[in-house]
Amino acid sequence: IKAKNDTVLDFDKNHLKNGDFEYGTHGNFVADEWVKSNNVFSKNHLEYDGVNKVQKINTLYGDQAICQPFVSASGDKIYYEVDIKAKVNDGDINLWIGLGNDPNGNFTTDVKLTELGLNRGVYTSIRTDMGYLGLFASGGIHSNAIVKSVYIINLTTRFGKGNEPTIEEIEEYGMHSIVTTTTIYNKIKEIEKKSVDLEIMEDFMYENLPTLAPNPPRLNWEIIRTTNERPRWLSDDGEVLWGDSGGTILLQSVDEWASTMQVGSAFAQNIQGVRELSTGELLVSTTWNEGTGMKGKLYKSVGYDRGNPTETVFTEVLELISPKAHIINHWGFSVYENIVLVSEYGLWDEEGAKYVYLSTDYGDTFEPIFNLLTQEIEGRPEIKPNAHVHSVAYDPYFNRIWVCVGDRPNTAVYYSDDMGETWVYVKGSSEVQFTGIIALPDCVVFGSDDSLYTGLFIYRRKHKSEMPTIKAFYLLDTPTTITHVFQTPFRKGWNPKTPVYFVGNKATTTTNKPVVIGFVDKIRAYLLWESNFSDNRDMWLVLGETAQGNLISYSRNPNEILKVQAPKWIYYIEERDEHLNSEMPHIIVDED
Known about the structure:
Elements: E1 2-3, E2 6-7, H1 11-14, E3 15-16, E4 35-36, E5 46-49, E6 54-57, E7 66-69, E8 77-86, E9 95-100, E10 111-113, E11 117-124, E12 132-136, E13 145-154, H2 155-159, H3 167-173, H4 175-191, H5 198-208, E14 212-215, E15 222-226, E16 230-234, E17 241-244, E18 250-253, E19 261-262, E20 271-276, E21 282-286, E22 297-302, E23 313-319, E24 325-326, E25 333-336, E26 339-343, E27 345-346, E28 355-359, E29 367-371, E30 388-395, E31 400-406, E32 412-416, E33 424-425, E34 434-440, E35 443-448, E36 454-460, E37 471-477, E38 484-490, E39 500-506, E40 515-519, E41 525-530, E42 538-544, E43 550-556, E44 560-565, E45 568-573, E46 587-590
Antiparallel strand pairs: 1-2, 3-13, 4-7, 5-6, 6-13, 7-12, 8-11, 8-13, 9-10, 9-12, 14-45, 15-44, 16-17, 17-18, 18-19, 20-21, 21-22, 22-23, 24-27, 25-26, 26-28, 28-29, 30-31, 31-32, 32-33, 34-35, 35-36, 36-37, 38-39, 39-40, 40-41, 42-43, 43-44, 45-46
Helix pairs in contact: 4-5
């Protein structure tokens, strides 16, 4: 664990890494991070299984080890967790933990592991400066172990002699909680001796708190099929996807877009967005048509039935005031129970996108609550001709409405705590231009559309009466032009442990790669994917996970539907770097 530029816990000296048993790659028959003894001659004695993500250790002697650098002295307390998933054959397990001077030399037989499942305990080292800690067999009897994960730490060098946690304390509180708590405590005691800005302490706390992280840490998309169709939204139960034909026909799919059914009749204009209401009905937005003078519109289904979608009837519930704007899927909808917010997006100034609308009756009726050009808000930037609304989001945790606007120099974030009667300008929010917004129980996250900063930004909740402070959360780069525009932040339902998948698409006319960033809370965000396709495709959203356990997306140029298995989000102890963004974790500690 690292805090800013100060190393608090040196994993290289007193901590044996898991070796990426969970997500390593094939390489010399040993999992990543491990050193294989040259005395292991046969693949049958040592093999890394990248499919099941386990390490087979079936060696015979103490010089046939897999090991890592590890420092300990005589009298040090060593804690170990070794999860043995299975045996190679029906014989007994004969796997040992021990120390050695040389990866190719003999290792000492310190602890024998014999049980399937989790083997853990604390033992006292009787040797000093051996240099390596390994797993191996002894006495010419096969070790006969298929290992899922390894976690070994020198408690004495980590906590200090006499302060090591007991095995009973570790079993009660969990090793990751003890490491995190003591790290924060020690750092705070150090900071208390200095005159340090409180924000530094706050940042450090967040950087070192445990949080849910993705496993596996990267997405590897597969192409389902080539089509102009676009999945736009996923039901809260993960059973149904809705989207469009690439034109005026609304579609639904119950098999992850392998096939689709038409929902109702074709609309008069192309579909821009879809949302599911808590009542089970649907909202569908359509584009404006300058040639015919038709404005952007919003429709609501009447008696929609998933089992019989073709008979669905839609009724118009809103015609936008602005003639050159519509409600787009990425930023224009926010739905929470009976509350529905929609915002215009389109051209600038008088005829462009300037209104936000509110419904409190499940989308039956709407009223305008925000006019970018005329709204009286203390401290707001002076409106210039290139102004338009970007996005809106309802925040049920503060009963607050958030609105982001642009373009520079009109860039700003506003909020209302009285359902649009009055508005507050967020001080400092004109520094970065935002698009997508999502509210979580402990924070609000904003995606950028900016030439100075690219990535995600965060307001970590304090008291509702305090002026929000928006900080960097995950930065991709510090560009001189706009490289990415963040699109739809998707979270299925409102469970606080459900992950958010936030897509940053490449900016128009650039060759940058789309990215997907995931997070669960205010603590940490993870880069899950940077396009590994050779083409210059666009991506706007990730929907999931579905009832089948997958994520669904679509791309343009080429027009394809994409699918990948959704990662599992579980707790980790992490090895951190010194930058804003986190490295991926090595140790799986707790799946609760």
